[in-house]
Amino acid sequence: MKVLLASSIDPAAIEALEREHDVVRAFNAPEADLVTLMADREAVIFRSGVTLSARVLDSAPNLALVLRAGSGLDNIDVAHALARGVQVVRVPGSSAQPVAELTFALLLSLARKVTLADRLLREGHWPKATLGGPLLAGKTLGIIGAGRIGSRVGEMGAAWGMRALGCVDRPSPAVASALAGRGVTLTDFDTVVTESDFLCLHLPLDEHTHHIVDAGVLARMKPGSFLINVARGGVVDEDALHAALTGGESLLGAALDVHEREGEGVVPRLGALPNVVLTPHIGAMAWDSQRLIGERVVELLRSYEHGSLDQELEPEEAVDAPPT
Ligand code: MLT
């Protein structure tokens, strides 16, 4: 197949794809380049960092398959792709554990000032007396979006002795009981916001969740609490977050793996604050997980070529309706 590899994936998978297909590599290309690169492509493989807009999709008359090497669908016009008869498939399963583990890395970095301590020590300082922080055990861990990733974070929090609370967009007794089995109590958005010592965001970005954490939500957070965003940059209003972190309000610190503006050369304004931990969208970047995602991408393309893709898709991989 004629494949555009629009994002970097596991090196072994790239090798396999290049052996089996006609692959053009163009990682994180802007729209202006994509419209040219897509001209003769039949499949595109992508992650975050690139946008498959309607214009980009329309520039590929032979496009038949779009493969998301991960779970987020906020950077593709899914409705347009489906309307054009392009099949959209994603590989969501293997990214839950690495994102949950990074959430914990960020929780610990924030609570125990790990990155700040590291920076100060390298500068020759020994400010032990100023580097205290709260225990996680005994604190409330709040999860906005207690789905595949969020419920895993809740389970990990419960194992650390935290009280885990979560909310979802479609609560039901079945969801409540599945979460309870993982040590997470299902409640509503406002309870999670107001009672959490550590508020973690694990929800997709769409028109309903854009800036769901705004100035109003930040003002309602528990005094002395922390915010962790590993979901998508757009779910937090970062200007409001900057104001909350500098305005002496309840929020003690924030950690963000995802940002409203991402990419090489972008310097986040929040980076100037000592109570902020920032990472460059590395949630899914555990080697083991990337290897599994890469293997699945190679397999899915093979299945497509053999005409057996539909039969072999896991239920969560098939994208057959716009995300709600
Ligand atoms: C995902 O949605 O799977 C993650 O954000 C991984 C990524 O594309 O970087």
From TrEMBL:
Coiled-coil residue spans: none
Domain D-isomer specific 2-hydroxyacid dehydrogenase NAD-binding span(s) in chain numbering: 104-283
Domain D-isomer specific 2-hydroxyacid dehydrogenase catalytic: 3-307
Oxidoreductase in keyword set: yes
PROSITE patterns attached to this UniProt entry: D_2_HYDROXYACID_DH_2, D_2_HYDROXYACID_DH_3
Transmembrane segments: none
InterPro entries hit by this protein: D-2-hydroxyacid_DH, D-isomer_2_OHA_DH_cat_dom, D-isomer_DH_CS, D-isomer_DH_NAD-bd, NAD(P)-bd_dom_sf
Signal peptide: none
Molecular function (Gene Ontology), one example: phosphoglycerate dehydrogenase activity
One Pfam family matching this protein: 2-Hacid_dh_C
Keyword vocabulary terms for this entry: NAD, Oxidoreductase
EC number annotated for this UniProt entry: 1.1.1.95
Family: Belongs to the D-isomer specific 2-hydroxyacid dehydrogenase family.
Protein known as: D-3-phosphoglycerate dehydrogenase
Native source species: uncultured Blastococcus sp
